[in-house]
C-alpha cells in the first residue's frame, strides 16, 4: 500500500510563490510579450507574431556570438576543472598552512567583477602593465587590444585566475570528506598515487564536481562585466559574448522586441543545460 | 487588464494554457498520485518530469521549425502536442 502524503503544507509556500511571481514570473511574461511586438514607444506597439524569432535565428551576428560563447564556456570548463582538482590535491591537509592556502585562494573570489576587469586591463598593457610589458620584454609580440588570439587568451586567463579557486575550494571540501580508512586500505594494497586518485578520490568528488561544472558553466555562459571592461568585446567583435550582444541590442539600439526574442532563446539554452545538470546530480544521489 | 503593459491576446492565451495545464496536473496529482517509473526515456521520471521535458522540447521544436523552414507553426504545435502526449503516456 502506498501512503498518500498530506500535501496541505504546500499552502505555506504561497508567500514565496507570490514573491517569485512578482520578481520572476511577471517579468518573464513581459519578455514573452515584448518578443511578439515591435514597440516604438508607449501606446505605439505593433503585433509582429514570430517575426523577431525568425530574424534572430537567422542573424549571423548572434549565431557568431552564440558559437563564441560555447567555445568560451567549453574552454573555461576544460581548463578550470582539471586545474581546480590539481590545486585541491596539492593543498596541505590541515594546520596553519591549510588556512593560509584557503585565504590565498579565496582572495580572487572576493574581488568585484569590474575590478577584476580593470586589474587585468592594466596588468596586460604593454607600456605600464607587468604582464604585457614582461611578455614584450621577453620578445613575445603580445597586444590584447589589437590581436584576437591575445585578447582571447587574456580573457581566458582572467577567468581562470578569477574562478579556478572556486573549483579548488569545492574539490578541497570534497577531498576532506573522504575518510582516512580509504587511504589506509589503499596503502595496504600498495595502490599507486594514480590508482588512489582514479578509484578513491575522483569517484568521491563526483557530486562536488557536478556542482562545480554547473556553477562554472552558468557563470561563464552569462559572463558580461569582465570582458566588457577588459576588451570591450574587441578587437572587432572577437570577444563579444552573448550577454554583451544582447545588451547592445536591448539598451544600445533599444531594439526591445528582437532582444526579448533572443533572451528567450538564451533562457531556453540555460534552462536546458541546468535541467541536464540537475538531472545528473539527482540521479547520482539515487545511485548511492 | 489586457491593455496594461501592452499585453497581447496570443501571449495571454499562451500563459493561460500553461497555467491551465499546471492546474490540471495539480488536480490530477491530488486525485491520483503518480509513482516514479521508467519508460523509453533513459531516466526514471514522474508525471511532472515528463510534462517539463515535453514543454521544454516543445519550445525547441517550435524554434527548429522557425529556424529551418517556412512551414506554419501550427504544424510545430501539432507535432509538439503529439510528442507531449506520447511522452506523458510512454516516456
Structural features:
heterodimer; A: 288 residues; mainly alpha; MetI-like fold; two-stranded antiparallel ribbon; 2 strands; 73% helix; flat; B: 91 residues; 2 domains; 69% helix
By CATH, the topology of the domain at 71-258 in chain A is: MetI-like fold
What's the helical proportion of residues of chain A?
A: over 70%
Q: Count of DSSP E strands of chain A?
A: 2
What value does the average pLDDT of chain B take? 87
In helices, the fraction of residues of chain B equals 55-70%
What count of structural domains of chain B? 2
- Contiguous low-pLDDT stretches of chain B (5 residues minimum) are none
Structural class of chain A, please? Answer: mainly alpha
Oligomer: heterodimer
Q: Which stretches of chain A of 5+ consecutive residues score pLDDT under 50?
A: none
Residue fraction in strands of chain A? under 5%
Q: What is the first-to-last residue Cα distance of chain A? A: 25 Å
Spell out the CATH superfamily of the domain at 71-258 in chain A. Answer: MetI-like
Largest two-chain interface? A-B, 26 and 20 residues
Descriptive notes:
Chain A has 288 residues and is mainly alpha-helical. In chain A, 73% of the residues lie in helices and 3% in strands. Chain A has a domain of 188 residues: MetI-like fold. Chain A is built from twelve helices and two strands, in the order αββααααααααααα. The two termini of chain A are 25 Å apart. The model of chain A has no long low-confidence stretch (mean pLDDT 87). By secondary structure, chain B is an all-alpha fold. Chain B has three helices and no strands. Classes of the chains: A mainly alpha (288), B mainly alpha (91). Chains A and B meet through helix 1, helix 2 and helix 12 of A and helix 1 and helix 2 of B. Chain A: Pfam families: BPD_transp_1 (PF00528). Chain A: It comes from Marinobacter iranensis.
